[in-house]
Specification:
- The protein is α+β, with helices and mostly antiparallel strands.
- It has a single domain, classed as Ribosomal Protein L24e, Chain: T (Roll).
- Helix content is 18%, strand content 39%.
- It contains two helices and four strands.
- The strands form two sheets. A two-stranded antiparallel ribbon has the order 1-2. The protein has a two-stranded antiparallel ribbon with strand order 3-4.
- The longest helix has 7 residues.
- The radius of gyration is 17 Å and the shape is elongated.
- It starts with 12 loop residues before the first strand and ends with a helix.
Length: 71
C-alpha cells in the first residue's frame, strides 16, 4: 500500500537534511495519513486520508453519518 491520500493524491516529497555545517543528506517528507472509516463512493470504507483533507471537511466520517440518521 502506497503512502498516498486517497482523496487528494498527496504523496511523499523528497528534500534534504541540512546541518549547521551544511552537510546535505537526502530525506523524505511523508504526508500525515490517518486511517478513518468514511463514506467513500456511497459506501462506508476504511480509507487512508491526509489530515488536511480531514480538517477541510472533504471526509464524511461514518460515525457522524450514523449519528445523523434517526433510528
Amino acid at each position: 500500500m502506497s503512502r498516498m491520500c486517497e482523496l487528494c493524491g498527496k504523496k511523499p516529497m523528497v528534500g534534504c537534511n541540512v546541518s549547521h555545517a551544511h552537510n546535505v543528506n537526502k530525506r523524505r517528507f511523508n504526508p500525515n495519513l490517518q486511517h478513518v472509516r468514511a463514506l467513500h463512493n456511497g459506501k462506508v470504507k476504511r480509507i487512508s486520508v491526509c489530515t488536511s483533507c480531514i480538517r477541510s471537511g472533504r471526509v464524511v466520517k461514518a460515525s457522524r453519518l450514523l449519528k445523523a440518521t434517526p433510528a
